[in-house]
Specification:
It is a single chain. The chain contains twelve helices and no strands. It is mostly helical and 224 residues long.
Length: 224
């Protein structure tokens, strides 16, 4: 196992398409619910403990080797917004393409054949982590982190925030990121006994609403 693989996977420069998505931040800024560092921190914290926890659980389960197609269906059930389901599959398709080039594996090839239209991104991330020799906790931690780092980075561009403030915000959330990752990884250990119902299914209705509103906008900087 190489921990350096975790750095590669979590790196915002990994060509998985995340740079084109704001994680709901563009819509939150447009609605004025996020307008400064304090409101950004509240947004990121809320996202981390809802959508972030749910995604981390899916990623951790995929990293255990659980059936990714069953997890993809579980991800669909946990994503009520059609727009966000489409985004998750688009990101998953791009991540799978990058992962197959970076950590070639028969399992990733099979996943691409089984779901040519794309698999939910957290499931792909977990399968990728497994192919890279990482643990379910690694996959959960990477997923939890990207659920807040993406919006924080987007907010710097959208609000002209000081990048140092955004970085400090992520540092303040680091303990909570670890807590969410451990909760998600613990849930993944119960999936064989309890099925996918063991995984977190925390809802974030406002993220679903602003995701749909953003998809309907004709002019936007980010894809989501």
């Amino acid at each position: 196992m190489t921990r350096a693989a975790l750095l590669v996977l979590a790196d915002g420069r990994f060509p998985a398409g995340g740079y084109a998505h704001s994680g709901g931040m563009e819509a939150a800024v447009a609605s004025h619910s996020v307008h400064d560092t304090a409101s950004l921190e509240a947004f990121c914290r809320g996202r981390l403990h809802t959508a972030g926890l749910t995604a981390a659980g899916l990623a951790a389960a995929a990293a255990t080797g659980h059936d990714p197609l069953a997890l993809d269906e579980a991800a669909d059930a946990r994503t009520p917004s059609p727009a966000l389901r489409q985004v998750a599959r688009r990101l998953g398709r791009q991540m799978l393409r990058a992962a197959r080039a970076t950590w070639p594996s028969p399992d990733l090839d099979q996943l691409a054949r089984n779901r040519p239209q794309g698999v939910h991104q957290p499931v792909v991330l977990g399968a990728t982590a497994r192919s890279a020799g990482l643990t379910p906790l690694d996959a959960a931690r990477c997923t939890a982190y990207e659920n807040v780092s993406g919006p924080a980075t987007a907010a710097v561009r959208l609000l002209s925030l000081d990048p140092l403030d955004a970085t400090a915000l992520l540092a303040r959330l680091s303990g909570e990121i670890d807590d969410v990752a451990r909760t998600a990884a613990d849930a993944a250990t119960r999936i064989l006994a309890d099925g996918v119902s063991a995984l977190p299914a925390a809802s974030a209705p406002l993220l679903d609403i602003i995701g749909e509103r953003h998809a309907a906008r004709t002019v936007r900087l980010f894809a989501s």
